[in-house]
Sequence to fold (340 residues):
Amino acid sequence: MNGPGRPGGLRVEHLTEPFGMTTRAPRLSWRLPAGARTQVAYRIRGEAGGTEWDTGRVESGRTLFVPYGGPPLASRQRATWAVKVWTDLGESDWSEPGRWETGLLEPGEWAASWIRPGEGERIPPAGHRPAYLLRGKVVLSRPVARARVYATARGLYELHLNGARADDIELAPGFTAYRTRLHVQTYDVTGLLRPGENVLGAVLGDGWYRGRTSYHRLPDGFGDRTALLAQMHVEHDDGTETVFGTGPDWVWATGPIRAADLFDGQENDLREDRPGWSVPGDLEAGWAPVALAEATGASLVSSPPRRCARSRSCGRSRSPGSGRTGRSPISGRTSTAGCG
Fold:
């Protein structure tokens, strides 16, 4: 006898339909149908890489962190699943399907290289270091079916593609033990790509990696050079794939963010702005080839995105003649040199 309703709130490692996951055996969770109080059994079925799997009926009251029981997952693979339960109300209907997608699971699948701005031997003093602009270009000659960018940094970064932000993720890649573990963010950029030339860019700042942190505001806690790693996979409608990422053909420049620090805030000089810096086309003066940075051997793992929940406008700003104002996308602070 079927009871009313179906399970809902399907989650994979706490997340709703995540993509870019590096967990090889993710844990699955769900909520009971409305009105149900006790679960006595569940059944999960799904599909991954063209292979279907089914747990059959499992006698268990468990609804949280049930181990994935399907075939081994490969990199950049999409998986679907659904669950039905037996409760004090009886047998439920099948849930709506849930989905997730894996990221790059093997270190050898990273074809991109770590890059950094060419600061030279004289690094600006802590608290007064700018956020740098980095960009590279790729030409696409075939229609795009699906595209993902996998990115991380030693520092904080904000990803751009063809003149638009790739997502509203903030303070990426987030605080971590940079020497041993780096969080990778995955971006769905299918709708941002176009036929012909495309430009992938990033704003790169100090963040927790080399910014002033802790009670004593000590800089360079994990290193003295920021760096970026990004790799884009483009699937075309004919089944072919284009892979593009950071490398020696990228260029860098300074922009309007003259200083960015988690403690000291951010200073913008809009006279130094570079409109269209991440748009295809010819570049103005001031750009130079990036330097290659060494890989550290840190594990590259996925992490939940951090998004802006609420924004506040500047209470006061200096006169336009000062040229110093703006928000703080890379320092994480809303107080800038243009606000009082």
